[in-house]
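FORM 12-B: Structure-to-Sequence Request
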């Protein structure tokens, strides 16, 4: 039927996670009888003859074969790396670490393999520096190329640390687990951008475990902050606000930049729970002050990309949630016009800008901005961006007859 996961779930009257599990293969059992009945009803009452032809072809040929025949060359090209699902990743990380991650082998994985051969003989600072440099490279690739490109090498580093963490002296083990905690947190973020919260949660838990084993209090607070940010994806305002405050008030000394990020997240939680705009703006102002006081030398082992541009676009999200979409539109415009965001982040926050425009009663401009975001989301494989655009499309439903909105709908459908 060429619907998004969210649209199809709404048609069925089930949770989006249910459809997402069917599609990703995380659910290995067939749907329950009541859901089979719902699917049968939708097939009989809501599909067109063309839908049924596609359905029968897919059943007969298998999805991969059918897509290779019918999709355009651009969309038929598979991602460079196929991310592992949560179950395969959990089994691999819980094993003795032999073999390779549940992802395709590449030159990058071969490089990590060579480092492991060296690690079997001795583990010194140069090997630790190697892992740090590889994670830094992955983080740089993520902003420009997207999560699917950065994930394989990230998982390889995390797996290497899992494999050898018990084979090194105690002092080096703490350093190794600190790097592993950073890598697991980053891998969790990548899966979050791929709209896979189950795997993201698993990796955030591993990151917290390793941060505790490494004695890294700041990293523990940082993981709580990232879990708070993930709660926004599911619109869980209570969890978002509680974790943001726990990150801000915990027994760790976070660097000023991360403190600013936590206070900004608290502002978002206040906006979502209906607190007065003045309280939201007070938090945003405090975040600005903390960011001005940030010292790059005082990172406490945490690398945060939270800067003035990030603060402004996140403040814009707060204003959207607080019912001030016009103010949000202004802030988004200032940052996006100035540049400075990575390509993936620019596409994502453009989608957020489109939502603010739609809420401001600007359907044509909202549709135009969102359509460009779809292209960036497809290019960087940011499922999170596409998810926001689908939300924009729902907000634009009253203007569905307008050419720009129809064009946006076609772009979303083409994105798969």
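FORM 12-B RESPONSE
SEQUENCE OUT:
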């Amino acid at each position: 039927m060429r619907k998004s996961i969210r649209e199809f779930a709404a048609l069925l009257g089930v949770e989006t996670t249910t459809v997402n599990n069917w599609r990703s293969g995380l659910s290995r059992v067939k749907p329950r009888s009541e859901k089979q009945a719902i699917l049968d009803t939708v097939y009989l009452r809501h599909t067109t003859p063309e839908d049924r032809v596609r359905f029968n072809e897919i059943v007969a040929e298998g999805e991969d074969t059918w897509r290779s025949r019918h999709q355009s060359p651009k969309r038929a090209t598979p991602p460079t790396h196929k991310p592992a699902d949560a179950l395969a990743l959990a089994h691999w990380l819980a094993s003795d670490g032999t073999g390779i991650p549940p992802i395709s082998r590449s030159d990058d994985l071969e490089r990590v393999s060579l480092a492991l051969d060296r690690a079997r003989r001795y583990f010194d600072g140069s090997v630790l520096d190697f892992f740090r440099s590889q994670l830094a490279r992955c983080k740089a690739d993520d902003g420009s190329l997207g999560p699917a490109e950065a994930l394989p090498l990230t998982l390889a580093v995390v797996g290497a640390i899992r494999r050898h963490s018990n084979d090194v002296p105690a002092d080096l083990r703490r350093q190794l687990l600190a790097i592993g905690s950073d890598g697991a947190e980053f891998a969790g973020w990548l899966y979050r951008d791929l709209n896979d919260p189950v795997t993201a949660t698993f990796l955030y838990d591993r990151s917290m475990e390793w941060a505790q084993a490494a004695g890294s209090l700041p990293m523990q607070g940082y993981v709580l902050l990232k879990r708070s940010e993930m709660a926004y994806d599911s619109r869980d305002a209570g969890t978002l606000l509680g974790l943001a405050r726990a990150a801000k008030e915990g027994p760790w000394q976070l660097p000023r930049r991360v403190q600013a990020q936590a206070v900004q997240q608290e502002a978002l939680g206040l906006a979502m729970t209906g607190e007065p705009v003045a309280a939201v703006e007070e938090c945003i102002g405090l975040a600005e002050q903390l960011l001005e006081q940030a010292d790059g030398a005082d990172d406490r082992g945490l690398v945060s990309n939270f800067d003035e541009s990030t603060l402004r676009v996140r403040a814009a999200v707060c204003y959207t949630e607080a019912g001030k979409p016009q103010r949000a539109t202004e802030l988004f415009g200032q940052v996006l016009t100035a540049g400075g965001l990575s390509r993936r982040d620019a596409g994502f926050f453009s989608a957020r800008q489109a939502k603010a425009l739609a809420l401001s009663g600007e359907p044509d401009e909202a549709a135009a901005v969102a359509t460009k975001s779809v292209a960036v989301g497809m290019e960087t494989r940011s499922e999170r961006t596409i998810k926001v655009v689908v939300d924009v499309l729902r907000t634009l439903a009253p203007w569905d007859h307008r050419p720009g909105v129809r064009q946006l709908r076609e772009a979303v459908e083409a994105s798969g």
